[in-house]
Amino acid sequence: MLARNEVLALILGGGQGSRMFPLTQYRSKPAVPIGGNYRLIDVPISNCLHADIRRIFVLTQFNSESLNRHIGQTYRMDLFSEGFVEILAAEQTPDNPNWFQGTADAVRQAERHFVRYDADYYLVLSGDHLYRMDYNALIRAHTDSKADITIAAQPVTTSEASAMGIFRFDRAGQITAFEEKPKADRLTQIGQSIPPSATFAKHTPDKPFVASMGIYVFSREVLLKMLHADDATDFGREIIPRALDLYVVKSFVFHGYWADVGTVDSFYDANIMLTQSDAPFAFYDPRRPIYTQPQFLPGAKLADCVARESIIAEGCFLGPCTVERSIVGLRTNIQAGAQIRRSVLLGADFYEADHGGPVYGDNPRLGIGRDVVLDHVIVDKNARVGDGAKLVNERGLRDYDGEGYYIRDGIILVPKGGVIRAGTTV
């Protein structure tokens, strides 16, 4: 176990999150709900807490109110400890009037807030990844190898490699080159990350490349020097390639489940994966659970419904309906006759009183109405889907903006607070 004040964590909240629109229309990426009960930011914070890393800064600049509220209500440290989870939002100063220009620039601008804390190592993390990692093992690997920078890495397939930062190694396992998101023709030139017959990464033929996970350990002085040495704005595109000629840069190869949940389709896939009986990741683990805000809600109430391979969160009411391979988030109300398949419902922030009369005005009631059919749909919080609506993407559209909904990567999205009128067919 590390000394309590040896490591300080910096979690990057990401930029505008346009690839996750409309899920990021009113919130930052780390605040996006996942798995029925959680938010993405809960993953790196929980991993830190299990490693006894209790000084954590979250760097963000877009739509940070929701994230601020969640962190403030969830992560309240002991008054007699030095631990904290604190938001560092982008701010204009006399020295720098600009917003964050990239990952490295975000850390550079936040430096004046975190540099005063004693720390031998800085753990730099992303706020939109799904995984469970022992950061103690990562930092031990860093210290044991006497590295200046250690990067968590994972073997990946050729199709995955173009979207990630790719390493090249020599036979001894030293990093010789790093390329951020190389195109397909460049991957053909590289051939593979690891020389033939080398076994240090324990990779398989179907995963010939080793990619950065965007998880870094920097020795204190190295990070501070690199931030001030030039005007680099991004870790992957600039800081890491330049460091290879100046410092000892090592990899820490991780073989567990990991997903970058930074796009609509990756977010959808990660949620649907959770419904599998043999899912490679689960939010509950008896030794290292993922923490989140306690809701103090009643258990879900199911009234003669059928649910298969699904996750039903607290506080839900499900009438006589069918739910298959889906996530049903907090306080979701699903009325009789609804058919929910391969869908992700993020739930609601409140309950809506039902006095037996027309209390909804022209809008449907909160939640999923009677005889609604959803297939391959994400319904954001506080949305209303009217009776008889059918959202199945019958035309097979890839990207489209409709009345009260969007289609991205073939997935229908009903935005936060969105309204789908009764009888709508998509």
Q: What distinguishing features does this structure have?
A:
single chain; 426 residues; globular; 9-stranded mixed beta sheet; alpha/beta
In brief:
With 426 residues, the protein is α/β, with parallel strands linked by helices.
- Given as residue ranges, the uncertain stretches (5+ residues, pLDDT < 50) are none
| Alpha carbon gap, first and last residue | 54 Å
Overall shape: it is: globular
Q: Kindly state the percentage of residues in helix.
A: 10-25%
Largest sheet: 9 strands, mixed
Number of strands: 31
Beta-strand residue percentage: 25-35%
Which structural class is indicated by helix and strand composition? alpha/beta
User: Counting H and I runs of at least 4 residues, what is the number of helices?
Assistant: 9
Write up this protein:
The protein is built from 9 helices and 31 strands. The protein is of the alpha/beta class and 426 residues long. It is 19% helix and 27% strand.
Q: Mind sketching the topology for me?
A:
Layout: E1 7-12, E2 33-34, E3 38-39, H1 42-50, E4 55-60, H2 65-74, E5 84-89, H3 103-114, E6 121-126, E7 129-131, H4 135-144, E8 149-156, H5 158-161, E9 165-169, E10 175-180, H6 184-190, E11 209-219, H7 220-229, H8 235-243, E12 249-253, E13 258-260, H9 264-274, E14 301-302, E15 306-308, E16 311-312, E17 317-318, E18 322-324, E19 327-328, E20 333-334, E21 339-341, E22 344-345, E23 367-368, E24 373-375, E25 377-379, E26 384-385, E27 390-391, E28 400-402, E29 405-408, E30 411-414, E31 419-420
